[in-house]
Amino acid sequence: MERGRNNEEEKEEDVAMSAQQRGGGCNYGDALYWDARYLEEGGASFDWYQRYAALRPFVRKFVPTSSRVLMVGCGSALMSEDMVKDGYVEIMNIDVSSIVIEMMRRKYVSVRQLKYMQMDVRDMGFFSDESFDCVIDKGTLDSLMCGPDAPLSAAQMIQEVNRLLKQDGIFILITYGDPSVRFHHMNQEGCYWKIILYIIPRPGFQVTPGSSSRKSFTEPVPLTEKGQLPAGFVPEDPDSHYIYICKKLPHGLIQPLVQ
């Protein structure tokens, strides 16, 4: 039993290290790193992983435009702006970096649908329980996994997301982590989810001619009863992004459900 736990932890560390290597060894779990980076970039826009155009089919399918949305770890991304252009009426954006929050406030001062606050995703006590219809994370959990006390940080974040979501609310998690290194973080005490998984390739990935690729990346990926990928399933792009659509279920269920 002890050996199995260590193997799981080692795989989790490999995912985090891979994310750091893609960024040249940067410590994505450190708030000071982000302050320095945003100062250096001078407010230039940057979207991690995917732009809204690629994520739109999933967002529009599960999140009505009238929803009150919380964008965690917003950074300098254009995603919230693009969602407003697509009809979304209320998006609260938070980030641990006070530098980027001030930049974004100035940039969008005239856009009434967008609000910005400096906040740590592990402690969002400013907001009341069940005050959002949807929470979107595009890389924030992955950043925490690169920092110290990663399992504790992940647990704090997921519990806070669960607290803030209304009943039947939607948590959209975009991550490099496959189910073997993400489902146990979702399975926190008091958190009950119905989860649908999509897998999409990174921007610019070229499908190999003649490969047996799935018909559409907008089709959900089947999961086992334990919430894992089927045996032998390998994404065509080794650096694919995993999109977890997590619906908050009523308290009292024995375990998270997978669709």
Report on the structure:
This protein has eight helices and eight strands. Helices cover 34% and strands 20% of the residues. Residues 1-24 have low confidence and may be disordered. The protein has an eight-stranded mixed beta sheet with strand order 3-2-1-4-5-7-6-8. It is globular and about 50 Å long. With 259 residues, the chain is of the alpha/beta class. The protein starts with a helix and ends with a strand.
Short description:
The chain is an alpha/beta fold and 259 residues long. It is built from eight helices and eight strands.
What share of the residues does DSSP label as strand, in percent?
A: 15-25%
**Main beta sheet: strand number and arrangement?**
8 strands, mixed
Rg of Cα set: 18 Å
What is the spatial order of strands in the main beta sheet?
A: 3-2-1-4-5-7-6-8
Instruction: Report the end-to-end length measured between terminal Cα atoms.
Output: 28 Å
The percent range for helix content is 25-40%
Spans of at least 5 consecutive residues whose pLDDT stays below 50 are: 1-24
Number of helices: 8
Along the chain, the helix and strand elements come as: HHHEHEHEEHHEHEEE
Kindly state the number of beta strands.
8
The overall average pLDDT, rounded, is 86
Which structural class matches the secondary elements? alpha/beta
Shape: globular
- Assembly type of the chains comes to single chain
